[in-house]
Amino acid sequence: MIENVIQIRNLSKFIQSKAIVIRMNLDIPKGSLFGLLGPNGAGKTTTLKLLTGNLKPSSGSINIMGLDPWKKRVELFKKVGYLPQNPSLHREKTVFQFLNYMTRLKGYPRNDSIHMVRDILEQVGLSRFEQSIVGKLSGGETQRLGFANTLIGDPEILILDEPTASLDPEGRIYVMSLITELAKDKERTVIVSSHILPEIQRMTNHIAIMSEGKVLISGNMRELTRNVFDDTYEIQVSQPMELKAKLDEIGYETKIELDTLIVKTNGKISRLWKEIPQICTENGYELKSYKPVKDALESLFINLVSKNITINNSNSSEEVINP
Predict the structure, then answer these.
(1) Are 208 and 32 within 8 A, CB to CB?
(2) What span, in angstroms and rounded, lies between the C-alpha atoms of 280 and 173?
(3) Distance in angstroms (rounded) separating the CA atoms of residues 209 and 47
(4) Which CATH number applies to 232-292: 2.60.40, 1.10.287, 3.30.70, 3.40.50?
(5) pLDDT for 250-292, tens place per residue?
């Protein structure tokens, strides 16, 4: 049976009478690498602030390892590492001084603190910046320092809000690899928010998709995307114009973009999978590849978010009332 390390029930948050999170229900399994997906303004950052006790819920409840984060924030301080979107760092301190200060703040003795800081700096690739002034670090280096701060004390839960923001491509790959490595410890739960679908798809095994303050769907990534197929395919074939003509004859919508044949299936996906190889074999065309224009997660995301926006626009006269 799956053990949930976080349970959220009927959670709502209003800021200046505006509903930011609306009646959220969500379970996050222990040991999962959990992706919180959504467009900008979906409520992801507010949700993470509620989970870390930085905001008080307007209604509903949050249970993290048996504790309410708003009421038991001090007790959770050692157990939860939090990387906010724009981490507040002591710009006048050196990198070592800042992390040493944060380590002592969590109650670790001086000798333990020194060793812990140096281990963490090596882990995030900042060892050579130990004596650098925080305020003089680049954006990517500052983001890595914020990430290092979340690792103090080897917390059981990591909550990371857009952890690859401000990083160059090399830095993003490094941090994604680090997150994946940290999540291999099945006792640790890692929650990552992002609007970048390929990053979430590469890293996570469970997801929730948010839009306009609501969780639209949540669960195991593989199970959620298993039966999601996009309606448009791109086909690489040796004679794209000839194949286009034959598919047009039997009712498909097609077009050529550069040397790629684009086919809209109009719901006839299984039929397309049978007919294309057959046509190519009969006519001597070399079928090089065919794949959805969008992958399964992207299709799921776009379909859910666009439907939610349409429904909300049609019900725009209905207001969510601050309890």
Answers:
(1) no
(2) 39
(3) 12
(4) 3.30.70
(5) 888 888 887 889 888 766 766 777 888 889 989 999 988 877 7
